[in-house]
Each structure stands twice: as structure tokens, then as C-alpha cells.
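Researcher: Good morning. I'm working through a list of sequences from a screen, and I'd like to move beyond sequence-only analysis. For each chain I'm collecting a predicted structure so we can compare shapes side by side. This is the next one on the list. No need for commentary yet; just the structure.
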Amino acid sequence: MSIYVGNLAYSVTQEQLESIFAEYGTVKRVYLPTDKETGRPRGFGFVEMENENDETEAIDKLDGAEWFDRVLKVNKARPRDN
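Model: Good morning. C-alpha cells for this chain:
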């Protein structure tokens, strides 16, 4: 399962995002998409954790939390529409 993290500050790095999720368990992967034309962050990302229980706890604790002066939107990522 992958976790969607929305409403991120554009200045957030993969390391910072990993560190906040690492408080809830082992992080396997962090991905912060960038705009293809400008290379700038798009304001959202995805986190994969090793354990589903840790993912559920992270979602419960971080959804609606304020971080970098923004209220995070955290939930299970949905499959991408083609």
C-alpha cells in the first residue's frame, strides 16, 4: 500500500517527509513528483512503509496535522487512472 500526502509545502524534501513518517515505523520509499516542465515540486507525495499497521497509524495521526504551516491531507493512495 502507498500513502498519499497532499498539501505539502513546496520546500519539503524527501528526507524531511521520510523523517516524519519514520516516527510511525520503517519507511521503504518516499516519492515527491515534480513538474515536467519546471522541475518544481507539485505539492504532494507518496510514502511506502514496511508494515501496513504502521501505515494505518501514520495516516490516522498525520491526516489533518499542521506541518510547515500547512494542514496535511494524508490517506491511502488510489490507483492512478490511465
